[in-house]
Amino acid sequence: MKRPPHQIIAITVFFLLYSNTSFLFSAGILEDPELNRAKTGDIRAEDGVLDLRDYDFSRSGLISLRGEWEFHEKHFLQPGSPRNPDRFIRSGASWENGEGFAPRNFGSYRLTILLPRRIPAESLHLEHREVGSAARIYWNGENLLSIGRPASSAEFARGAWNSGVSSALEPADQVELIIHMSNYDTVNGGLIDNLIIGPRSRVYAHYHSTLAMNYFLLGILGIMAVYHLFLFFYRRREPAPLWFAVLSLFLGLRALVVDTFPLTLLLPGIGISPVMRLNFLTFSISIMAVTLYVHFTYPGKLSRVLAWASAAGSLAYSALVLIGPTFTFTSYLFPFQLFSLVIALGLSGVVLTALIRRKPFSGTFALGFLVLLVTAVFDIIKTILLLPVPSLSSLGMVLFILILSLNLSRRTTRALQDSETLSARLQQINNAMERFVPREFLRFLKKQEITDIHLGDHSEEFLTVLFADLKGFTNIAEESGPEHVFDLINTFLAGMGPAIRKNKGFVDKYLGDGIMALFSGNSSNAIQAAIEMHQALDHLNANRKDRGLPPLEMGIGIHTGSCMLGTIGEDMRMDGTVISDAVNLSFRLQSLTRTFSNRILISGEAVDHAMGNEGFYLRNIGSFSVKGRGNRVDVVEVINSDPPEIWKQKRKTRKMFEKAVFLNRQGKQKEALELFRGCRTEAPDDGAVRYYLETLS
C-alpha cells in the first residue's frame, strides 16, 4: 500500500530521532551535569569557594562550576593574589544583567576549588562554552586555554565564540581557577555559560553528544528545508511550503552557532563577528518566516497585519545585524525580543481563532505551537530560578518543526487528493464533452482539449462523408407520442454508432433521425461501416417484428473529397461544422436511395478511393445531376447489405443491368429498355430497374 507523504515524513523523522537518541543514551553520552545536582545535592560555590572534597567523580560524573565567583573589575588578577574581590558574582549571568557592571569591560574571575582527596582513576578535564567575549583560563597558575584574546582595551582585544575541552588538569587538593575576561563585542559580557569539570571520558562524551545533536538538528532541518522547497517549486501557488523551508533552513543554520558552535570547527580561525551575525540573523529571519508561514496557512486580517509587521521589523533588524557593529545590534536584541513576543501573542490569537473555527489541521498546528511555547517558557523559568533540569528548547524546536512539517505534508496530501479528485471530475467532464465534440474533431484541428478550441479554428482534410437517414420516419413520428419517438431514435442511433467507430470513423452530427459521420483516409472504412449499420438495423427490425412493429428502412450516401472543418458561431456559443461539397453530395446520394429503393449509394470518387474493396459487391447505377453540383455524378450501389433474395437477383442481373445503363447513357433508350425489361423478369424486386422502366416507358 502506498503511504501518503506526511506518513513517510513522520516515519523517517521518528526513526532518525529514535535511532540517534537511543545511540546516545546507550553510549552514556547524554549526561547532563545539571541532572547530577538531583543526585549529589545542590553543590555550588559560595564566597568564591567550591568544596568538592566529598564529591565522587567516578560515581557522580560531571559537575557544573556554578555559584559565586570572586570578580575583580578592570584588573587582570595574578595567580596567588590576595582575596580582595570587588564583589562576588554568579557564573552563568552577564555583567550587565543583575550584576551592575558595564557590558564593555574587563576583569578577572577567581574560584577556589577544594578537590577530593581520593584522586579519580581518570584525569579531570574542563569544558567551556560561550563567554562574552574573550577569556584566558589559568589552573593553579598554568595557562590552561584561551578563548580569543582578552585585553584591557578594545584595540588589543579579540573576541571569540567557540567551545572545547581543556587538556588534563593537574591534580591538587586545592586549585585556584582564574579567568581573565574582556568584552567589547556584545552587550552580554561575562561568564555566560557555566564551566563543566569531570573525568575525561564523561567530559568528552558530554561535549560530543552536544556537538552530535547540533549536527543532527542541522541535518534534519536541512532535509525538511529541501523537501518543502521542492513542494513549493511543484506548487508555486501555495507559498506556505516556501516559508516553512526558510524557517527550517535558518533554524538548521542556527545549530551551527549555538552550544558547541560547530561552525568554528568547520571553519577554524573564523572571527567572532561572522558567528555572532549568523546567530542573530537566524533568530530574526526565523521570526519572519514563522509569521509568514502562519499567515499563508490561515490567512486573515490579523495574520496579514502580523505578516507585514513581522517582515518589516525582522528585515530592519536583520539589516542592522548585517551592516551594524556587533555591540550595536546586540544592544537592540532586547527590544526586538519584546517585538517578537508581541508577534508571538498575535500568532497565538491566529492559531486560537483557527482552532475555534475548526480550520483544517488547526489542531496539530496548535499542538506544535503549544509545544514550542511551553518549552520556551520552561527554559526561561529554568534560567531565572536556576533549576537543576536540562534545557528543553532544542527538543521543543525539533518537535515544533516536526509537527509543522507533518501538518504541511498533510495539507499537501489533501491538496494532492483534491487535485486528483478535480482531475477525475475534469476527465469526466471531458468525456461528457466528447459526446458533443468528438476527440477526432479536436485532432483534426490539432487541439488536445476542448478548452483549446477558439472561434474560427479550422483545418482542411481529405475525408469520406457518410450520411444516413431513416426512410418514412415522419409518418412513424406522426403516429407515435414524443416519448416513443425519442426512444425509437435513441435505439436506432445506439446501433449505428458502434459500427461507425469500429471502422475508424466518428459521428460528427446527429440530425434527428439522421447521422453524419466522417472517415479519414480511403473510403473502404466508410463503405464497411455502412454495411454493418444495415446489419445492425436488420437486428433491430427482427426485435421490432417480434413485438408486432413495422420494420425501419435506412438509406446511406457516401462521398469522398476535400473538407473544411472548423468552428462557427460567436464567443458565447459556437459549434463545430464541416463545410464541403462532399457533405452536400453524400446527402443527395442518401436522398437517391428513396428514388431507387435501395440501401447504400456511393459516388464514383468514393469508389476510386476505396482500397481492398474485393469484398464489396458494387453495381453502377448511372450518372445523375444533383442539386448544387454542375457536373453529373456517377452513382454506384453497394448491394452487400441487401436482403439475401434481392442480393441474389442483383448479382444475377448485374452485367445486363450495367449494359442497359451504358446504352441509356449513349442515347440508345430502346435497346436499354429491352434489357431493363429482361432484368425485371429475373429481378422483380429491384428498385433501380423499376425506376428506369418508369422513366423510359
Automatic annotation (TrEMBL):
<dbReference type="InterPro" id="IPR050697">
    <property type="entry name" value="Adenylyl/Guanylyl_Cyclase_3/4"/>
</dbReference>
<feature type="domain" description="Guanylate cyclase">
    <location>
        <begin position="464"/>
        <end position="590"/>
    </location>
</feature>
<dbReference type="InterPro" id="IPR029787">
    <property type="entry name" value="Nucleotide_cyclase"/>
</dbReference>
<dbReference type="Pfam" id="PF00211">
    <property type="entry name" value="Guanylate_cyc"/>
</dbReference>
<dbReference type="Pfam" id="PF07695">
    <property type="entry name" value="7TMR-DISM_7TM"/>
</dbReference>
<feature type="transmembrane region" description="Helical">
    <location>
        <begin position="336"/>
        <end position="356"/>
    </location>
</feature>
<feature type="transmembrane region" description="Helical">
    <location>
        <begin position="363"/>
        <end position="381"/>
    </location>
</feature>
<dbReference type="InterPro" id="IPR001054">
    <property type="entry name" value="A/G_cyclase"/>
</dbReference>
<keyword id="KW-1133">Transmembrane helix</keyword>
<dbReference type="GO" id="GO:0009190">
    <property type="term" value="P:cyclic nucleotide biosynthetic process"/>
</dbReference>
<dbReference type="GO" id="GO:0035556">
    <property type="term" value="P:intracellular signal transduction"/>
</dbReference>
<dbReference type="GO" id="GO:0004016">
    <property type="term" value="F:adenylate cyclase activity"/>
</dbReference>
<feature type="transmembrane region" description="Helical">
    <location>
        <begin position="240"/>
        <end position="258"/>
    </location>
</feature>
<feature type="transmembrane region" description="Helical">
    <location>
        <begin position="387"/>
        <end position="408"/>
    </location>
</feature>
<feature type="transmembrane region" description="Helical">
    <location>
        <begin position="278"/>
        <end position="298"/>
    </location>
</feature>
<keyword id="KW-0456">Lyase</keyword>
<keyword id="KW-0472">Membrane</keyword>
<protein>
    <submittedName>
        <fullName>Adenylate cyclase</fullName>
        <ecNumber>4.6.1.1</ecNumber>
    </submittedName>
</protein>
<keyword id="KW-0812">Transmembrane</keyword>
<feature type="transmembrane region" description="Helical">
    <location>
        <begin position="305"/>
        <end position="324"/>
    </location>
</feature>
<feature type="transmembrane region" description="Helical">
    <location>
        <begin position="212"/>
        <end position="233"/>
    </location>
</feature>
<dbReference type="InterPro" id="IPR011623">
    <property type="entry name" value="7TMR_DISM_rcpt_extracell_dom1"/>
</dbReference>
